[in-house]
């Protein structure tokens, strides 16, 4: 599975793509940061993020996109920009029919370090180790994007399989109920 992780931000939007499967070795496909100028108007900055992510999605062809779930911060302006950048990433994926998953920062940290409260340095060290990189990805936004992609490969795939299994059980139960109702309407048992 090839997953694009996006660490949304209005000035720096980290993008990391990894390939792998649960229990298998991970491989780095790409890591970069889409940057916009802080002095530009927000609409232009969002357009720049969209253009950058679109180009990477078209070039790298991920199977899924994992975006950091925006959480409340004290700085409303920062959270608004982060949410807007996250929305752009989700829109780019949706236009291409790609599944989108949202993972909290603590989920991504726990997936790569085993600790949902790990600091940025710990996340960067583990991402570097897990992907067998010669040097740590920089800036931290790039490492965070890779952590999101790794999190989705390891947890998202399992979550998707569980959801499919749950749908199958629901479909089987619905089929059994339809059969019971059909038998009842034909004068069969009422149970």
Produce a short descriptive summary.
It contains 5 helices and 5 strands, in the order βββαβαβααα. The protein has helices spanning 42-60, 76-95, 105-113, 120-130, 140-185, and strands spanning 2-7, 12-19, 27-35, 64-68, 100-103.
Describe the structure.
- By secondary structure, this protein is α/β, with parallel strands linked by helices.
- The chain has a single domain (2-187), classed as Ribonuclease H-like superfamily/Ribonuclease H (Nucleotidyltransferase, domain 5, 2-Layer Sandwich), CATH 3.30.420.10.
- 55% of the residues lie in helices and 17% in strands.
- The chain has helices spanning 42-60, 76-95, 105-113, 120-130, 140-185, and strands at residues 2-7, 12-19, 27-35, 64-68, 100-103.
- A 5-stranded mixed beta sheet has the order 3-2-1-4-5.
- β2 (12-19) and β3 form a beta hairpin.
- α1 (42-60) runs parallel beside α2 (76-95), α3 (105-113) crosses α5 and α4 crosses α5.
- The N and C termini lie far apart (45 Å).
- The mean pLDDT is 90.
Give, in order, the helices and strands. EEEHEHEHHH
Q: Overall mean pLDDT score?
A: 90
Residue runs with pLDDT of under 50 for 5 or more positions: none
How would you name the CATH homologous superfamily?
A: Ribonuclease H-like superfamily/Ribonuclease H
Number of domains: 1
Which oligomerization state do the chains in this entry correspond to? single chain
Helix run count = 5
Annotated CATH architecture: 2-Layer Sandwich
- CATH class category label: Alpha Beta
């Amino acid at each position: 599975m090839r997953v694009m992780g996006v660490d949304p931000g209005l000035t720096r939007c980290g993008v990391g793509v990894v390939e792998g499967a649960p229990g298998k070795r991970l491989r780095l496909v790409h890591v970069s940061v889409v940057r916009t100028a802080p002095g530009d108007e927000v609409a232009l900055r969002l357009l720049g993020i969209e253009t950058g992510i679109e180009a990477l999605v078209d070039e790298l062809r991920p199977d899924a996109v994992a975006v950091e779930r925006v959480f409340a911060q004290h700085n409303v302006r920062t959270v608004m920009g982060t949410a807007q950048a996250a929305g752009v990433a989700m829109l780019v994926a949706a236009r291409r029919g790609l599944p989108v998953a949202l993972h909290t920062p603590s989920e991504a940290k726990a997936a790569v370090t085993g600790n949902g409260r790990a600091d940025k340095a710990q996340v960067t060290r583990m991402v570097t180790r897990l992907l067998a990189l010669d040097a740590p990805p920089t800036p931290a936004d790039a490492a965070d994007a890779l952590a999101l992609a790794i999190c989705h490969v390891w947890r998202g795939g399992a979550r998707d399989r569980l959801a499919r299994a749950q749908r199958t059980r629901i479909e089987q139960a619905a089929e059994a109920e339809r059969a019971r109702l059909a038998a009842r309407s034909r004068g069969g048992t009422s149970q």
